[in-house]
Amino acid sequence: MLEQVHFLLTYLCNFECDHCFLFCSPRSTGTFTLSQVKQALAQAQKVGSVEWVYYEGGEPLLFFPLLVESVKAARQKGFKVGIVTNAYQATSVEDSALWLKPLVNAGVDYLSISDDAFHWDQELSPAKMALEAAKGLGLGTGAICINQPTIMPPGEGQKKGAPVIGGGAMFRGRAVEKLAKGLALRDWKELTCCPHEDLADPGRVHIDPMGNVHLCQGLTMGNMWQTPLEVLVQDYRPLEHPVCGPLLSGGPAQLVRQYQLPHEDAYVDECHLCFLARKALLQKYPAYLAPPQVYGL
Ligand code: SF4
User: Fold this and answer.
1) Cβ of 274 less than 6 Å from ligand 1
2) Phi/psi of residue 174, nearest 5 degrees
């Protein structure tokens, strides 16, 4: 049951992180207008089961007035509201409260902040300052920490005999280009499930300014500017979806088999193979694999 809608409010970001799923950077394009936000919120409300709306990106604080109005609009529709940010504006705890207050007054419930070496290298990072300020304002908070991938020592892995990569990076988007090199690999035939997304019964989707409704970054249910979200959700038949169907029946390995895609012998993990297989299918299924920029194109 769909409970969360995450707005990719903008693809623009002040950073260009190696692990970014979406290839965001200071050169990225695509930002919601306020009118589009309101249209999307109305569609989300019609789904009937959505409780939470998140605003993220890219870096949503780059469009601060739009963010404040979007929080208000979501609250007016009765949604709980979260924000995901890298807190780049935080220069001190006291000053962090200055930019947090308008968001709190607008009704935000939860602030999730990227606090890791990909974003910040100083001990008292802007993320930590913003977290402290948020707590002082009584806001629910959480930190997202992604570290450089490492091969975990034996015993800490999830699956006996399989090389497991620690650090929390997902091998989709820019991480495939920047972080996969030199890591231990697994036989492609072992990659038989999607370990991170509930493609059969998604509890959350990400939506972008172009209207794409992402089940996983770049893998879409359809386009909400062409077909309203409530209809997309109602008509979603995961096993009939040309990409989710194979992923559900046999993971990325089945996706490769079904479309007879060229492939290497081994990959870091399921997402690594899935992302490259989907990239190879972009021209065949542009309605379900979009937008090209999240594939680095
Ligand atoms: S296997 Fe594919 S669909 Fe599943 S989480 Fe990884 S990249 Fe996303």
Assistant:
1) yes
2) -65, -25
pLDDT tens-digit readout, 194-220? 999 999 999 999 999 999 999 999 999
- Give the C-alpha separation, 59 to 24, whole Å: 9
Strand pairing report for 52-56 and 4-8: parallel
Exposed, middle or buried by CB within 10 Å (0-12, 13-18, 19+), for 94? exposed
- Ligand 1 atom 5 nearest Cα: 196
Q: How far is the CA of 72 from the centre of ligand 1 (A)?
A: 33
Which one, of 115, 134, 108, lies nearest residue 55 by Cα?
108
Q: DSSP for 34-97?
A: HHHHHHHHHHHHHHS---EEEEESS-GGGGHHHHHHHHHHHHHTT-EEEEEE--TT-SSHHHHH
Of 70, 28, 30, whose CA–CA distance to 53 is shortest?
70
The domain segmentation of the chain, as residue ranges, is 4-295
Quote the CA–CA distance of 282 and 30 in Å, as a whole number.
19
Q: Which CATH class is domain 4-295?
A: alpha beta
Residue type, 203: G
Closest protein CA for atom 4 of ligand 1: 194
Q: Which residues of the chain have pLDDT under 70?
A: 116-123, 145-168
Residues 96/111, Cβ–Cβ less than 8 Å: no
State pTM to two decimals. Answer: 0.91
